[in-house]
Write a structure and sequence with these properties.
The complex is a heterodimer.
Chain A: H1 5-11, H2 17-33, E1 38-40, E2 43-46, H3 60-74, E3 83-86, H4 103-119, E4 142-144, H5 147-155, H6 166-175, E5 177-179, E6 193-197, H7 204-218, E7 223-226, H8 233-246, E8 253-254, H9 264-267, E9 277-279, H10 281-290, E10 292-293, E11 301-309, H11 311-321, E12 331-336, H12 338-347, H13 349-355, E13 358-362, H14 366-369, E14 375-378, H15 381-390, E15 394-397, H16 400-409
Parallel strand pairs in A: 2-3, 2-4, 6-7, 6-9, 7-8, 11-12, 11-14, 12-13, 14-15
Antiparallel strand pairs in A: 1-5, 10-15
Helix pairs in contact in A: 2-6, 3-4, 5-8, 7-8, 7-10, 8-15, 11-13
Chain B: E1 4-8, E2 10-13, E3 16-28, H1 30-33, E4 57-63, H2 69-78, E5 85-88, H3 93-102, E6 106-108, H4 114-117, E7 123-127, E8 132-136
Parallel strand pairs in B: 3-4, 4-5, 5-6
Antiparallel strand pairs in B: 1-8, 2-6, 3-7, 7-8
Helix pairs in contact in B: 2-3
Chain lengths: 416, 138
Amino acid sequence: MELTGEQQAVLDGSQGDYLAKCMRWLVEWGEVMGAKRLIKVDNTHALLPVPNLMAQGASKETMDRYMADLVEACSHGTHPGCTCTVHAAFVTLDEVDVPENDPEQVQMQKDLAVLAADAGFIPTFTCAPYLVGNVPLKDEILAWTESSAVVYANSILGARTTRHGTESAIAASLLGLVPEFGVLLDENRKGTLRIEVTAELEDPPDWGALGYFAGKAAGLGIPVFNGIRRPSQDEAKQLCAALATSGGVTMCHIAGVTPEAPTIDAAFQGDVPEDYLTFDAETLKETYESLRVRTGDEIDSVILGCPHASINELSKIAALLKGKKVAEGVRLWIDTARGTKGNADRMGYTEIIEAAGGRILCDTCPTNMRIPAKRIVTHGFKQAHYARGMVGAEVIIAKTEACIRAAVAGRWLGDG
Amino acid sequence: MAETIDIRGHGVVKGYAEGEALVADTTLSFWGEVDAITGKVIGVGHPLEGISLGGRVLVIRSTKGSSGTPMVLNLAQLEGNAPAAFVNVEVDGLAALGCIVNEIPMMTELERDPFELITTGDHVVVDADEGVLRVTRK
């Protein structure tokens, strides 16, 4: 990779050991991925989490060394002019009566949030930064963690980001640079798999099903959907999250809808394949069934807001819950960003949800927190997929209405 | 004497390591499918479910890149339970990043099919600097 004199100097230690290390990460990563140069980054979304139960059983030495790295990162200022937000954490910073929210680690996360804010990281603690003010423009260069947000930014917004991990996003935030490879380049934004959609997609989980199906088929490629209408923001969120769950997808196109796909021809940069997969009503049904793994109908958890709920979703959930009560022994948790909850408070949604026995959980999600659920109903394909391994729970994927009915009944009642 | 073969390939992330091979013609997500502390595969129904990756030369098709991959590798490395090396058919950028940060060698583009030539339990020397795998059959 060719570096400017200034970049080489940072690599050689002109700005200290830590920034030299950050530069080395970006340069070595760029070389591995075939980048020829580093380019300016406008916007980052970084992971700065204490590990909470993810590090259950870890030695004190491991925790100390892990935290020391994050503290070191936050002792340097973010690059001037670069907007930097923070990904969801593994704890909520609120005081909640949930044993999994380890008070010691909550305090560590709070201390880190103060350092991060001083450094210039906006402590959004969300997996959906595009819902709380980090809304990049078309062609803006980003360094985002969170695979679902990466797909959303590239596909729906037309911004450009490869999939980042903790260290690369921190390095990009501090240095204001990213290695130029993958979907940062026009030629790598070309569709690779054509999917004709004949199923009627009615609401967000249906779009999640489409994404879950397509992600598996596309692997590391770029699926192009043809024959569907413009999704709502919540539908697009589910599509992108599911694509990044079942596959290693970085972006997709929706012909006639997304910014770089005014036509199917444009989505494939003029090279539309004749072969295609079909997503029909039967495939839609089968995709739901693939994430309904249960040995009984009693449930203990209904988890909504994966990725983090929008204000519209909270409005819909409040309307469905109004005047009802969540069944005894069932936790109904809706995960969202603190900024969105602020709006929900003012709209009266929080009061309705809490009066019904539900909880709005900020900054994190139950899968990150590792709550000990046994059988979960959720409307997020991503949540359903990961909860099986990470929490060891049985899962039932369903539309929001069916999720709320299950929460009130305390058992899975079917799609209704 | 045990049979030893050399397989040439491309060292994606440089370095040298050796260990017992763990082979599966499959993909694996470090986020959600691997316990960061024990290094065990926890993905329900995954072909490697229940097996620890610690100190193993992990021969798989590719990792499924989640943003959490380097973080899981970092914790596993600190606990001594990260793989010794990666041998992948396809390179996922996030595993490559995790390997760079944690100084774990990674090889790809092997001149011969690793799934035919390497079996779980074989001893494998990964010399990613020279671009050679030395496999000693168990």
